[in-house]
Write a structure and sequence with these properties.
The chain has one helix spanning 18-21; strands at 2-6, 13-15, 36-40, 46-53, 60-67. Strand 4 and strand 5 (60-67) form a beta hairpin. The strands form 2 sheets. It has a 3-stranded mixed beta sheet with strand order 2-5-4. The chain has a two-stranded antiparallel sheet with strand order 1-3. The protein is mainly beta and 71 residues long. The chain has one domain. It is elongated, with a radius of gyration of 12 Å. The longest helix has 4 residues, at 18-21.
């Protein structure tokens, strides 16, 4: 699955390192304002997204995790 995130925050967003360890593939450099980033998730999963705001000095961080429905 492909998940596209558009940064409309006006600030750079760093990508949490756990994004890759949670099975998601993407370019890891910070997402600049007005930039899109594509996250590739494994088949049969959906994105779970969490964002942290560490303030103006330390910025924003995003985690995208691949989740499966529990049946």
């Amino acid at each position: 699955m492909k998940f596209v995130y558009y940064n409309d925050t006006g600030r750079e967003i760093s990508i949490h390192p756990a994004t890759e360890s949670h099975g998601v593939k993407c370019d890891m450099p910070a997402i600049k304002p007005l930039e899109e980033r594509i996250f590739y998730l494994p088949a049969n999963t959906y994105p779970w997204v969490k964002m942290w705001d560490y303030g103006e000095k330390n910025g924003l961080s995003i985690l995208v995790s691949a989740q499966k429905d529990e049946v």
